[in-house]
Design brief:
The chain is an alpha/beta fold. It has helices at 30-37, 94-105, 115-122, 128-139, 143-153, 156-181, 190-219, 233-241, 284-299, 315-323, 360-370, 385-406, 411-429, 435-443, and strands at residues 6-9, 20-26, 38-39, 50-57, 64-73, 84-90, 109-110, 221-227, 259-265, 268-274, 302-308, 330-335, 350-351. The protein folds into three domains: 6-126, Probable tRNA modification gtpase trme, domain 1 (Gyrase A, domain 2, 2-Layer Sandwich), CATH 3.30.1360.120; 136-216 and 381-430, Up-down Bundle (Four Helix Bundle (Hemerythrin (Met), subunit A)); 224-300 and 302-369, 3-Layer(aba) Sandwich (Rossmann fold), CATH 3.40.50.300. Helix content is 45%, strand content 17%. The strands form two sheets. The protein has a seven-stranded mixed sheet with strand order 3-4-5-6-2-1-7. Strands 9-10-8-11-12-13 form a six-stranded mixed sheet, sandwiched between helices. Bound molecules: guanosine-5'-triphosphate (GTP) and magnesium ion.
């Protein structure tokens, strides 16, 4: 990424949503651009960290484009540590896009995704774990995920990873000194070094495991509801999402396409998929829907296989159960329990009524448990995938170092992998990270962030 003055819409961009939209400008020309476009009536002082009221005006035509507030934050007291100008415009798409176009015409260029945060990082405003935490905070889909992101933003991860890296650096320094000046220094207790490396390795592995548990809160779960026609799949989607999202009729073959609903259950974000009931049919549209149902099962994190208690467990239900890939967790759920006295019907794991809501809470619990939810309670920090990979790589390098220790190889054999471990941890915090990696990390951010 290069320098210059960048600009983007920093608020959510959706038509008709939000009463305020913000155009953010950062860089050496930000103040000049702001001044060239903004009319502030009266004698409002043009000062840093003060809000001005006025109008954005097209300098070419003199036309007033929007009524707005301008906030100037001179370097280095801003998010990017460059001079930043924010234009708080009216919400919606039209005004803010026009204002952005004027800003671009005045000499700024469009910001790349995450470029503001990348500048903040490069200018030392925040470390890489905090920058990533901001992105996670913005995209969090549940309250728990936001809490974990906030812990990262407070420096929880930087502290943990940075601390472990320091401890490795201490050992590395001792070892490297012995490589060069063995005879001038007091003898090194190899056992103590190995023990310390092992302690760090244990902590790293714990952090990786915690990160994997936290992943559920970040990514959410994709849950597919599968079953023969008319068993009540769409009714169940409506019950869980407390909506009338899916059409329900007593005609088998009502749902023809995937119906998606986003919800949060006990803090876990969830995408629920209602599918077309599976049966043999000549109807071309229904066939296509059924193909989609089968594909949805392949990509689901959990499958709810629903069957109709009033009909009992049939061969066709068994065929469906057998079609679920072995590695996909699934729950077999008997529906319409309001019609039939709850029998102990194998292989049903749960009895519900999508009509009355009976069994709802048990279902939610079983659903979350089937995908390992519950384990992430009490998590303080959670590494994201990138950080997990690096922490795991560091732990593996430490394993190789410990191997050298065990074989009582000379010190320089220990240092090779130890150095790799230090480097991997530095890539998490951003202390040792290449520009290419940074570009990749920040490109996953949203534009304007
Ligand atoms: N009594 C009773 N009826 C139910 C229950 N769940 C669904 N039904 C009824 O069963 C019929 C079919 O429900 P749907 O939710 O459309 O079934 P579906 O599995 O989505 O059906 P397709 O889309 O055709 O595959 C409707 O008349 C529902 O009102 C239940 O728990 N009890
Ligand atoms: Mg349906």
């Amino acid at each position: 990424m290069s320098s210059g003055t960048i600009a983007a819409v920093a608020t959510a961009v959706a038509a008709g949503e939000g009463s305020v939209s913000i155009v953010r400008i950062s860089g050496p020309d930000a103040e000049r651009i702001g001044q060239s476009l903004f009319d502030a009536p009266g004698d409002q002082p043009w000062e840093s960290h003060r809000v001005l009221y006025g109008h954005v005006r097209d300098p070419a035509s003199g036309e007033r484009v929007d009524e707005a507030l301008l906030l100037l934050m001179r370097a280095p007291r801003s998010f990017t540590r460059e001079t930043v100008v924010e234009l708080h415009c009216h919400g919606g798409l039209i005004c803010v896009q026009r204002v952005l176009e004027l800003v671009l015409a005045a000499g700024a260029r469009r910001a790349l995704p995450g470029e503001f945060s990348q500048r903040a990082f490069l200018n030392g405003r925040l470390d890489l774990t905090r920058a990533e935490a901001i992105s996670e905070l913005v995209t969090a889909r549940s309250r728990r995920a936001a809490q974990l992101a906030m812990a990262g933003l407070d420096g929880g991860l930087q502290h943990r990873i940075g601390g472990l890296r320091e401890r490795l650096l201490d050992q590395l320094a001792e070892l490297e000194a012995r490589v060069d000046f063995e005879e001038d220094l007091p003898p090194l207790d190899g056992l103590a070094v190995a023990e310390e490396l092992q302690r760090v390795q244990v902590e790293l592995r714990q952090l990786v495991a915690d990160g994997q548990r936290g992943q559920l809160l970040r990514d959410g779960l994709k849950v597919a509801i599968l079953g023969r026609p008319n068993v009540g799949k769409s009714s169940l989607l409506n019950l869980l999402s407390r909506s009338d999202r899916a059409i329900v009729t007593d005609l088998p073959g009502t749902t023809r396409d995937l119906v998606e609903s986003e919800l949060v259950l006990q803090g876990v974000p969830l995408t629920l998929l209602d599918t077309a009931g599976i049966r043999d049919t000549e109807d071309r549209v229904e066939q296509l829907g059924i193909e989609r149902s089968r594909a949805a099962v392949q990509s689901a994190d959990v499958v709810l296989l629903l069957f109709d208690l009033t009909q009992g467990w049939t061969d066709a239900d068994q065929v469906l159960l057998d079609s679920i890939p072995a590695e996909v967790p699934h729950l077999v759920v008997a529906n319409k329990a309001d019609q039939v006295a709850a029998a102990d019907l194998a292989p049903a794991q749960l009895c519900i009524s999508a009509l009355t809501g009976a069994g709802h809470d048990h279902l939610v619990e079983a659903l979350l448990r089937s995908c390992g939810h519950g384990g992430e309670q009490g998590l303080q920090v959670a590494l994201n995938r990138r950080q997990q990979d690096l922490a795991a790589a560091a732990a593996a390098s430490l394993g190789a170092s410990l191997e050298a220790a065990q074989q009582q190889l000379p010190w320089d054999f220990w240092t090779i992998d130890l150095r790799a471990a230090v480097r991997a941890l530095g890539e998490i915090t951003g202390e040792e990270v290449s520009e290419a990696v940074l570009d990749r990390v920040f490109s996953r951010f949203c534009i304007g962030k």
